[in-house]
Amino acid sequence: MTEIENDIPLPPESGGGFFGDALAESSAPPSESDALAEPEKALSPKEDVYRVLARKYRPRSFEDLIGQDTLVRILRRAFSLQRVAHAFMLTGVRGVGKTTTARIIARALNCVGVDGKGGPTADPCGVCPNCTAILADRHPDVLEMDAASRTGVDDVREIIEATRFRPMQARMKVFIIDEVHMLSRNAFNALLKTLEEPPAQVTFIFATTELRKVPVTVLSRCQRFDLRRVPQVQLQEHFDRIARKEGAELSADALALIARAADGSVRDGLSLLDQAIAQGAADSQSVSDMLGLADRGLVFDLLEALMAGRVADALALTDQAYARGADLGVLLTDVLDLVHLVSRLKAVPALRETRELPEAERVRGGALADRLSVSVLGRTWQMLLKGVGEVEQAPDRRQAAEMILIRLCHAALLPTPDRLIRQLTESAPEGGGSGRAGSSGGPVGGAASHGTSGSHSASVQRVDGPTQGYDQGPRGQSSSSTGAPLKLVANGGQVIDPHYAGQHVPEPSPAKRPVAVESSASEAVPTEQDEAPNNKSAAPDDALPLPPRTWREMVALARGREPLLHGMLRNAVHVVRFAPPVVEIRSDDPKARVERSLQALLDHLFPKAWRVSTSTEEGEPTLDEQGAEIVALNQAEVESHPLVQAILMAFPGAKIGEVQDHGLDDYGLPPEEVTSLVDNEPPDLEFAPLDADLLDEDDIY
Predict the structure, then answer these.
(1) pTM higher than 0.85, yes or no?
(2) Within 13 Å and on the Cβ side, how many CA atoms surround 220?
(3) Higher pLDDT, 362 or 140
(4) Among 338, 367, 459, 506, which residue's beta carbon has the most beta carbons within 10 A?
């Protein structure tokens, strides 16, 4: 089909245009400035019909779009170069102007100007018959379809059939499909060919809020434009202009609350502004009551009370907000938002000088940012984030919210782990395992003065071997009798060293990080020693393991191959003599016949190489008994540490948890030094080839 010719007759000057309606009471059409200044008069002659602000002040040109500068710039350039695409995909959150932009593009494609001789332009006149008909949603060549209600393939076939005919009145036939992601798969497939090669007089404009649900085959055939959320400052200025046109005076704080509640959506904000004007809500207090929000100043007061640990004040503020109709779940969300604001002010001090935030928030938020540390803000954020979910699941939202506030007040009185370790380290005695935690004999730290209930546990870990920064303490002495640094793990696994209290200790790299092992009789966790090349105990049966050099390596051969045998060997078998290729053992349960199972395993791995026999002698303790002894020694050493003694005195009822020594293997034993299997083993020799020349004695010497 060829390009249509501009042979459409213009409507009579005194008539109602193409569509039989009079545009205004007067015979002369309104000017462009009049139409933009009072859009409701250009659209409807009825003065008594109220139109909501979202429709009354809907943008009619690219100049009226706010917050979409990139989109406007690209489309203006495309119209000026006459390079307008045949299909557009507009995506973004609700209320940012997707459908409005589609209608503006339709008007720009079909505008004929005031004199009726114009062509496609980025600045539609707004007064020609095509512009006014599109604005009034009654143009026969601009068809809008809601894909949410018409999702089937038959609806798309109607559109495809309509593309075969030339426009009746306009220059271009425009199909606007809103919420296009709701179309069925068959509907999308039916549209693909027409969308790829549409007739010259057809343009498709799609709008969606769920772009990921649109097939990529459709996206590849469209020009995509992402409409962004409108910034809060720009929304506030826009709402202020509209309120003044409506003869309403709203305070800056009230407009800021509406803009914040709009969350970047112009339509949502205009609906709230319409409601505020109708209710006469001119100040922030009235808008807060209308939105069911707590006053911003009350939220600041509440956060200050929480951070100071004043439970009575926090509950009083909660009762005050609840009496005014505020939802306490929403109140917690407001506090969460405020914690985020204070954290941003602390991380980016330049925000205190920008106009993005109201002056009250900049002043009070900056003061809180100066007083609170990052660790305190992070802890408060995590507790509030968890608390908001608890409120949604609780049978009584008010009770759940109050319990969360009480928990926050109590947590505010507790020091952070690094601060606690620093205080205990500074007050710990110089030497010895006993001593008072402070010179005055009182509790150590601000948290202990308020008392703690229940039992507390901390995980104590030790790392053997030289570690950078741990060889000597600040007093020039080793941190323990073995020279291994003592680490306290608390609150999410943060590693703190008493000699470097308040500083983060670098953990080993992931490739070399040892895995904590269990000292009980449970199944062991592989460690670095198991991953060594000389230990193939965890290898599959088809791999050839190396002969065991010690009893511990022989027991490890059963792990992964014979779990039951492995448990018996480590729990109930005493080695009497280990002299390869002979092994003498004694079992606590002679009826189990462990020696037969062990002999069968060795014959399977090393045929006719080992001989297992039983003995009545006492032998060595089992591997688990040896590991338990090592754990008991470490436990006693940790309990006698001065820092641990100070912690136990500061927190009555506290208990020492499991002591983890990363230098031990999976049996709870230190690594063993092994030698060659056979004494006086000859060195490896490289044999010469058969055709090599023999050396004379003179060549040797």
Answers:
(1) no
(2) 6
(3) 140
(4) 338
